[in-house]
Every structure is written in structure tokens, then in C-alpha cells.
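Hi Y.,

Following your request, here is the sequence exactly as I used it, all 134 residues.
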Amino acid sequence: MKRKSDEELNVPMAAMIDVTFLLLAYFLMTIKIELPEAHLNINLPAPAVEKNDNRPPLQLLEIHVLYGRYLLMGTKNVSLDALEETLLSIAAFDPGQTVIIKVSQEAEQRELVRLLDRCRKSGLMKLNVLTLKY
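Below is the corresponding structure, written out as C-alpha cells. Let me know if you'd prefer a different format.
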């Protein structure tokens, strides 16, 4: 058998390119990119131990400051000095008590400032001040 030296071997390039793109598409679709941050060792603080109190939780303390220097606690009128005594007794029982202060738009600012000073003096620091729309 005699070989023909004139003939060249042709490699089908279109098929090779198709296979290359199919492999590229396969690897792009199956790759899973891992974040290096996911493998970092982080020392987290231990969860806080809850206190096992049998005391019932206090109700939210609402104080209304209205026009004319009237301070209302709940539904009764209270003077600023009597309110301070109540705040001191509440702070002695639970210093983390939340106090909600609702202020009328017609109330004087100095009454609110006096009340905030008394709250700070009694040791209550969780204060929410709201403005009443009526």
C-alpha cells in the first residue's frame, strides 16, 4: 500500500471548537465559589446567662405631661415630688424599668425637662418621650 504524500490530514476545527465551548459551559455552570470568610475561626462570646427571677415583670410606666403643669401617672394626678418618690421606689426595685413619657403639644418644655431630671436622679435611664397629637 502506497501512501499518497499529496494528501494532508485535515483536523475538523469546528468540532474541536464546539467541544471546547461545551466544556467551558459545563465548568462554568458546575463551579461552586466558596467564600474564604466562611472558613475563618471566630471566637464568639458565650450567650448571656438568664437570671432566674420569679418576680412578675413590671407594667410599662406611663407618665403624661399636660398643659398647666399637671403630671398624670396612669389615671391619677400626681405632683412632681410625689412622682419622684414613686420613681425612686421603682428604680430601687428594677433599675432597668422603661418609662414612657407622653407630652402634650401644649405642655411647657420646662416641665418635661424637670421630669427628665427627676428620672435621671432616680436612676431610671430607659426613657421614651412621645408627643401627643391632641
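The domain at 61-131 is CATH 3.30.420.270 (Nucleotidyltransferase; domain 5).

Thanks again,
Q.
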